[in-house]
């Protein structure tokens, strides 16, 4: 009998997998374990990936289009197998072969280690962007660091966070292609002689390529990560003298550079190793790009028409000085020409307005590690300030200095108002890249965000409100000088990983309802669900899928922390890094309030209450004491609540340890309400809010970050909005010292947390921070938002009692989520910043 083409493909896939299991893994197919089967399948999929990767890259070499290079210290990729199989359209071919081995794709996927090369939002954004860049067939690569240890693994010890190394490479990594022949020299320390840098130390940056399959296209992009290696492996002479550790010292020192991701998403400045990491990957990326560019182009002036570097926050911004150095010292360009190229090639994204998260490096640290770069930075700064001074002077002319100065920038106004002796100089100082540390007299700092803005063609924020705030605060003076440089690019998430693949049940229903699966690449089509939002039969199907996903989440909770949670309860989730500004403690205050209400209620009243499961997950930076206390708050309250027989199934409180991408892929589809409750004006965007919205999970949130735009798209009346307005924050912070929370529930909660229910003094500091205005000032305004938050919580309970109304809203969330696809976001970057156009391999 003749085999159909499909059958033939299935058979080929099976043969390939069996060969891999036999010869690569080296085991018998009969006795294969899940891990071995995973290895066999992954190494087979890898070959398909590499075939398409090679074709794409060859085509791009031939066509020579303009490229986008996404520079990021973090890429939070998660697992690859399911994404690769689905994006390559291999599920049909591979599914049966996997089943014959006795497994499902999901089981094999669970064998894969997460690539957790990022802290949180910023790193995951970079990963979503790579997916969209490939999906839109945009010529583009990511550049970063191949950390040997990613984000630490989080455990719980006595309810406190414990940390252990993330050994993600122990089983090998089928998804990378080592390029041991592709290594760039990176220098450190030394001195500058005759304008040329003589580094005292050098290491190699060795490339590893990670192919990135697009969806619905033949395009496979690339994430090139660098591993740090010594110039020489081993000092034989030292060894022969019996100095064994000296013999391997260089190797160890070099390997330290790419050893570990800094697990801090706000402060870690001044650490030399962190700066080493930054220059390490940025220099390697730029050398790599220039080397390719020079193969086909002679004139460096053409660089801006062939390459754009997008700098993901300040972490890669030493690149401004590095590109200048390469163009001047290596390529022999004059300063002006190099500056022109640099400022046309670089673009910068800001992700935060929190002062402690804006990188400022001591001049002394940069000067020692990168003396030539420091020279360049000083020259950039002095030319910049000089050009401003000229502008000011020209405008001053013969008129009164006051009027003329006002035209230049708001900063001058400020200086005039402050009656500074020399208003011009005082104003110019505000624009300077090099500033004095306000807390340490005489210590000079390099403001990396300023350098990035000056050295780039564009600066963008990551949500509408955030892009407005940066123009009014941190970049105010720069915005007034060059308003055209400032843009907004509201973040997005990939609908492949975050809906189509993590929620197959819902995905299938959407496809059936819309009549095709085109929505996976064109998420605007999700709006077509709106007209079904009132359809009872549709609502019923929608709900039954949610129930299955809740069951999956309940199973996960049971297996991870041993707590049984009922599936008829409302699943309420807050998953994100633990931070005071994200206010997980506000969430817990409401949990305590709920607990006290249950305790006070009669059996009759209890019957009317809506049961709730509260899930919190997230990691705290290792040195962030208050964030760690907030984790303990969750686990300690959980212990009290979960074992109280009065409470039963009415309330369960779960802290899910070791939150990561693959955990999110189970939690998001199972959640019914999710919390995005940062103090207004503090969360630049948020991206998990978008994932929940896509999966039809209702949102309780402040008018902050992208919540505002989500409310616009899915209806503000459908969101549980509470809290003060961002524009009032400054005033409220000043007034907070004299502000008293009048709500009696607040005091009861504070009393409960400092009562003998808990170890003496355990939560005193946490409570004092928000409640004792003689010691603190409740910087994140929990007191101000408390009552309104509880009101919003009550609304949630009330609506949940009307399941049809709840389901209708859920459908409207998904229907309104099309805008938040990273495809939309990347399309805007490509057109409005990068000027990069699609270039897809034609079907042969
Ligand atoms: C910097 C220097 C030294 C050590 C660590 C760091 C560091 C590392 C990570 C500083 C910041 C980060 C991460 C920041 C981050 O994730 N920001 C989030 O970015 C998201 C994507 O734009 C937004 O949605 C979030 O609102 C924002 O908090």
UniProtKB/TrEMBL annotation:
InterPro entries: Glycg_phsphrylas, Glyco_trans_35, Pyridoxal_P_attach_site. GO terms for biological process: glycogen catabolic process. One of its GO terms (molecular function) is pyridoxal phosphate binding. One of its GO terms (cellular component) is cytoplasm. NCBIfam families: P_ylase (TIGR02093). This is Alpha-1,4 glucan phosphorylase. Allosteric enzyme that catalyzes the rate-limiting step in glycogen catabolism, the phosphorolytic cleavage of glycogen to produce glucose-1-phosphate, and plays a central role in maintaining cellular and organismal glucose homeostasis. Coiled coil: none annotated. Belongs to the glycogen phosphorylase family. It catalyses: [(1->4)-alpha-D-glucosyl](n) + phosphate = [(1->4)-alpha-D-glucosyl](n-1) + alpha-D-glucose 1-phosphate. It comes from Apatococcus fuscideae. CDD domains: GT35_Glycogen_Phosphorylase. Keywords: Allosteric enzyme, Carbohydrate metabolism, Glycosyltransferase, Pyridoxal phosphate, Transferase. The modification N6-(pyridoxal phosphate)lysine is found at residue 691. It holds the Pfam family Phosphorylase. Its cofactor is pyridoxal 5'-phosphate.
